[in-house]
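Below is how a single chain appears once it has passed through the pipeline. First comes the sequence as given, then the structure the pipeline wrote out for it. We keep one example in the README because the format questions we get most often are answered faster by looking than by reading.
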Amino acid sequence: MSHAATALRHTEPAFAIVPLQGAPLGAEVHGLDARQPLTAEQVLALKQALRDHHILIFKNQQLDDPQYLHFTSYFGSVFQPPADIPVLSSGADGKAPAIVRVANTEGGELGNFALPAHSDHQWTPTPSAGSLLYALEVPSKGGETSWTNLALAYETLPETTKAEIEGLRLINYNPFVRLKSGGYGGTFITYRTPDIEPIQGTEHPLVRVHPDSGKKLLFLSVHTEVEIPGYDPEKGQELIARLRQHLQNPALYYTHKWQVGDIVYWDNQATLHARNAFDAKERRNLKRISLAGSRPF
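Resulting structure:
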């Protein structure tokens, strides 16, 4: 090996996973170029770190679409919803693209408005296990993403509330069906009561168990249409409102200020994610790949 090659090798940062200081979740991955093959040790370390920290942040990445898909495939196959259950970017054939453009530019999704904290694909039979979001263009301010730790959310509930919600199920209704039918009429439904016509939805445990870590998780988004089956509607509304108030405790979440080249990989089973609004005159262009998951239990 030449002296120049030896010097270059010594200047390359070592692979390391560093937990975020003072944050309730998250770790930053150092010394990894997502364009290059990963070792078995690196893949296993990343998977364990995701179980431990729920989100992983990769800085200064430069990937084309095939490289991005190849990197993502270390962690699972691409999420694909059932053809009759629409999700973000579903086509006329019911299929969703492997890479979804989350952008306020032409051909992008979700514009520049704020998005409340949610878990992706929660209304499908097998919600995605996780997603990777890659930043290509970011606004000068706004557009930050926050992730909520659902394991910590459950752990910090009062014991009386844990007992109250043990064994309860939750129907998560499909927002895309309601939006496409014009059913919201300017008022977003956050809890379905008997006077509201039901739409497509899927029932999951309100407290789910993480399939890898075994941790209990409060599997609830903060502003989606839900219903506890077989529960008194007024009591159900009150309980869900109380749980959602708990989920908005700042001690449960980390907010990420995006930079071009960032990739954030989050566990969609163990977190919620939300986005701040930003100026529509500025450009925000990110690419998301979601990974297939399993039926919650």
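Residues 233-247 form the longest helix (15 residues).

See the next section for the split statistics.
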